[in-house]
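Journal club side-thread
Mid-discussion, someone asked how the predicted structure for our own chain would compare to the paper's figures. Pasting it here so we can look after the session.
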Amino acid sequence: MEYQEIVDAVRSLEGALVVVPDESGPYPQLAWGDAFFYYAPDGVMPERTQPYGTIITKDYPDDETSELGTPGRFRVNIHVGRELAAKTIDPEAAPAQTDAFFAHPLYGAAGWVSVVNPAGGTGAAVISLLRTAHEEARARSVRRGRQGAVE
């Protein structure tokens, strides 16, 4: 599964906003080329809401265990909640392993799962989990009465 396939799948979800920072915007250079997924039917990036999913293409400070400095590697991160995370992760998977779900190296305890270079073993599940995370983000937005929330 390719980076762009995942971005396109998320963009197809109603109310989805995919932010891919680059040098033309106000984003730090470290974030350039990564993707951040939000529920934002008004098309405006929420200021006080974390994304429900991301794709990162490089190592971040304090987060180098997935070895994303190797060309062609990227990691999908999805907030699924603690219960679903416990059911999804492979407890034997290492953060540098490809095509296997593991607890996010920094946010796993908060219910985030990750997979490096999803493929045959995880690709369909990645899309399904992103849909679920999107719906959960939509539901939170509706509960909070955010402008632009669609029921």
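Post-session note: The helical segments are 3-11, 82-88, 123-143.
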